[in-house]
Amino acid sequence: MTSVSKGFTGKHMLLTTCGFFAVVVSVNVTMAWFASSSWSGLVVENTYVASQQFNQKASAIKAMVATGVTGAISLHDNVFTYKLHNRDGSPAQADEVEAHFRRPVGDHEDFIESLTLVERGRFEANRHVPSGDWIVELISKRDGVVVMHEAQRFDTAGFGQ
């Protein structure tokens, strides 16, 4: 017996079409997963203006990093603490700190809090921070001049809230 090849049939077309759409759907699902798991959700009001200011802001941040001043945050029993210190570990000089609390996505729970100077290099605010992920932008000033401007992302669960 000899077998006769029928060529490209309707069954082949169905399998080809199903395979094509399976690839398209799987690529879209993969890309959507990567986008939702890696995008911070931060949005600027005017992207053109933000792009024009990027290099200037990047230079200012590099200059601040070069000073060696760093900060550390903590949250315990509704007390938010920010410790500012020099490269050698000594407390850094600042007389005011303003904290801008933002959710990574959405702005309906965002708030601004002025921290109180407790001791040199240590600032606190007695404020309930709702549970979940937050980005806190901290602006530290001494005599009206910014000495440190940083943003830290944290989850309240990481502080045992």
From TrEMBL:
Protein origin, superkingdom: Bacteria
Name listed for the protein in its UniProt record: Cation transporter
Organism from which the protein derives: Rhizobium grahamii
UniProt KW keywords: Plasmid
InterPro entries attached to this UniProt entry: FixH, FixH_proteobacterial
Short name of any one Pfam family annotated for the protein: FixH
